[in-house]
Specification:
- The protein is an alpha+beta fold and 171 residues long.
- The protein has a single domain, classed as Alpha-Beta Plaits, CATH 3.30.70.560.
- It has helices spanning 16-28, 65-78, 120-129; strands at residues 3-11, 32-36, 39-42, 52-61, 93-99, 104-106, 109-111, 154-158.
- The strands form 2 sheets. Strands 1, 2, 3, 4, 5 and 8 form a 6-stranded antiparallel β-sheet that branches.
- Strand 6 (104-106) and strand 7 form a beta hairpin.
- The longest helix is centred in the middle third of the chain and has 14 residues, at 65-78.
- The protein is globular.
- It starts with a strand and ends in a 13-residue tail after the last strand.
Length: 171
């Protein structure tokens, strides 16, 4: 049975927009891409580094959460992701944010993503696609008290990433 999930995409090295488009194209070969948020330019979290481009995509997949995580990591590997430094520079980052209304708490897989509600670069594009996404601990966005600083530094950059009819990805 196909499930709906949301994936967070980020890139701050090389052709950032091209990297996001390539990630959507590669993901579209493995699952149905339903739609994309706009692309935002955001300030980095962690060590000094270039600004990111971020977006969220909604997907339908037959994969289970573990299989979807592995597909995300495979796309990262194909696009040259190097895991050298926590919150460091990257050609691409593909995070599993939510998976239907499922909660998973395993050492290397937590759904909903444990810090997504603390990150404007995730929340702003996610809220374009789902006005009330499931958050860690079963909380809802409407119950959060978001500090204005949580969305500072999140600026519109480009229209939604292209998704072809039938759920594939465009250029």
């Amino acid at each position: 049975m196909a499930e709906t999930a949301y994936l967070g995409l980020g890139s701050n090295l090389g052709d950032r927009l091209g990297n996001l488009r390539s990630a959507v194209r590669l993901l579209g070969a493995r699952m149905q891409i339903l739609r994309s948020s706009r692309v935002y330019e955001t300030e980095p979290v962690g060590p000094p580094q270039p600004e990111y481009l971020n977006a969220v995509v909604e997907v339908r997949t037959e994969l289970d959460p573990r299989g979807l995580l592995e597909a995300c990591r495979s796309v990262e590997d194909q696009l040259g992701r190097v895991r050298a430094e926590r919150w460091g520079r990257r050609t691409i980052d593909v995070d599993l944010l939510t998976f239907d209304r499922l909660e998973v708490d395993e050492p290397d897989l937590q759904v909903p993503h444990p810090r997504m509600h603390e990150r404007g670069f995730v929340l702003v594009p996610l809220l374009e696609l789902d006005p009330d996404p499931m958050l860690p601990g079963g909380r809802r966005v409407t119950a959060l008290r978001l500090a204005p600083r949580s969305v500072l530094g999140v600026r519109p950059f480009a229209p939604p990433l292209e998704v072809l009819p039938g759920g594939g990805a465009g250029r």
